[in-house]
Amino acid sequence: MSREPLIFELSAATKKGFALPKLDVPEKTEALQGLAVRAGIPGFPQVSEVEVVRHFTRLSQANFCIDTSFYPLGSCTMKYNPKINEKVAAIPDFLGSHPYAPPELVQGNLEVLKTLEECLVEITGMDAFTLQPSAGAQGELVGMMLIRACLKERGDPRKIVLIPDSAHGTNPSSAHICGYRVREVKSNDRGTIDLDALARDMTEEVAALMVTNPNTLGVFESDILRIGEIVHAKGGLVYMDGANMNALVGKFRPGDMGVDIIHLNLHKTFSTPHGGGGPGSGPVGVKKQLEPLLPIPVVEKGKAGYSLDFSRPRSIGRVRSFYGSFLVELKALAYILTLGAAGLKEVAEIAVLNSNYIRKSLEGVYHLKYASPTLHECVFSDKFQKERGILNIDIAKRLIDYGLHPPTMSFPLIVPGALMIEPTETESRRDLDQFIGAMKAIAREAVETPELLKSAPHVSPVRRLDETAAARNPVLRWEEPKG
Ligand SMILES: *Cc1c(COP(=O)(O)O)cnc(C)c1O
Questions:
Q1: For 28-63, b where at least 16 C-beta lie within 10 A, e where not — what string?
Q2: What is the pLDDT of residue 29?
Q3: 176 C-alpha to center of ligand 1: Å?
Q4: Helix (H) or strand (E) segment spanning residue 68
Q5: 241 C-alpha vs ligand 1 centroid, how far in Å?
Q6: Is the pTM for the entire model greater than 0.70?
Q7: What SS3 class is residue 320?
Q8: Beta strands 160-164; 181-185: pairing state
Q9: Is residue 279 classed exposed, middle or buried when 0-12, 13-18 and 19+ CB atoms within 10 A define those classes?
Q10: FRET partner for 115 with CA separation of 20 to 30 A, picked from 275, 286, 385, 450?
Q11: Tens of pLDDT, residues 372-407
Q12: Protein residue whose Cα sits closest to atom 15 of ligand 1
């Protein structure tokens, strides 16, 4: 990619973005004096319209996105998002509806919310949902708040939350922010929760177990029923991090398997563009006993239509303005209704098939610490390449030269030098083979031309960065790479 100047560098006093006809009435600015009139904006770039369009279009092309290529970022479920969802979200009546509109005027919106709740109840086997949380991590926090409220009501507030070492990193932080002490539960050599360790750690001081299922190794916690029994026998609750539901939709209902509370990531499993800080949605589902505690307002369906119920004395209160990320919820509903029950089941089946295809194809080329069959993602490591001084970062950076997004790196922590790959169901056999081919080529390069990996990427606008310094002290002006 060639150098893209800053828009300020394109600026010249002679350039104009637009031209208005001469005023045909007397100019009057006195009335506005001291209010909104200023002579100009210091340093504001002056460029032509075409320069603005080309500048920003070129910048947009420097971005990697799912619409251009395979995006195997593990744990993030970077699936392709069907454009029909965007069409639905752009229907003017939805797009233009005001969050302060009274329920009588937004019956359709409330129907969308209620229908989505009902779909999620059916998909997960839980009894009720709140759609308010804005992301998975906020869903976790709300989940922890619900657990705390529930135990406090029972007169048995507890102090500790158990979290397996294979959990997602947001789990311990959510429990901690909610005021709990976190105790780690060890995994066994299959990469699942060690039942003996759990039985030892599960005391009457423990409020809940937070279990990511399938866990961050992509391995299904097949002892989930037994896990629930152990936790419940000591009066604790089971929280499931359901951000990995892409592996399970239509196949497994957590609510039937001893899970008391769960969050989903609509922006992962149910297809909304995410990453880059865009809006997300992390609904929380609960079993009956926790339902009265859900955040207000709750959408109610009555004889006279839909309404918002604010009078719920046991509620933990509001956790977000309005009803959550409405357009994300709308896109998720469009996605669920488009696929239907059979289609959702196929999502999980193909996601798991694709991940296992990659795992089998790269087995032996890259090290697999846990050999257990995986669901929707697989975790390799750089152990073989490390013997020659090549680390996971070198492999990840070299993938950029092959036109591919790097996988998630150095996570989960129980796999040193991890490369975590989640292909999702939307990738074709051809795209998977292309990725596998690139990964094999890079493994050969690690032996034959390791310097190519060490200095990668070579084709991107910027080369190897000091990532910490780049985040803390970004240099936005494009400079010729040194050397
Ligand atoms: C992505 C993810 C989260 C966090 O979700 P955000 O929406 O990014 O806050 C939590 N748990 C797991 C397993 C995840 O993959």
A1: eeeeeeeeeeeeeeeeebbbeeebeeebeeeeeeee
A2: 72
A3: 16
A4: none
A5: 8
A6: yes
A7: coil
A8: parallel
A9: middle
A10: 275
A11: 889 999 999 999 999 999 999 999 999 999 999 999
A12: 75
Q: How many residues does the chain have?
A: 483
Residues with CB under 6 A from ligand 1: 75, 135-137, 168, 170, 212, 241, 243-244, 265, 280, 282
What distance in Å separates the CA atoms of residue 379 and residue 76, rounded to the nearest whole number? 13
pLDDT in tens, 91-107: 999 999 998 999 999 99
pLDDT at 26: 87
Q: What domains lie within the chain, and their CATH numbers?
A: 83-338 (3.40.640.10), 342-470 (3.90.1150.10)
| Ligand 1, atom 5: closest residue by C-alpha | 136
Task: State whether residue 73 is helix, strand or coil.
Answer: strand
Q: Does pLDDT of 147 surpass 60?
A: yes
Give the DSSP letter string of 196-258: HHHHHH--TTEEEEEEESS-TTS---TTHHHHHHHHHHTT-EEEEEETTGGGTTTT--GGGTT
- Write out pLDDT tens, residues 247-297: 999 999 999 999 999 999 999 999 988 877 678 999 999 999 999 999 999
Q: Find, among 252, 280, 255, the residue nearest to 170 by Cα.
A: 280
Residue 27 tokens, joined: 């100019």
Ligand 1 atom index nearest CA of 170:
10
| Residues paired with residue 425 on neighbouring β-strands, in sequence order | none
Mean per-residue pLDDT of the chain: 94
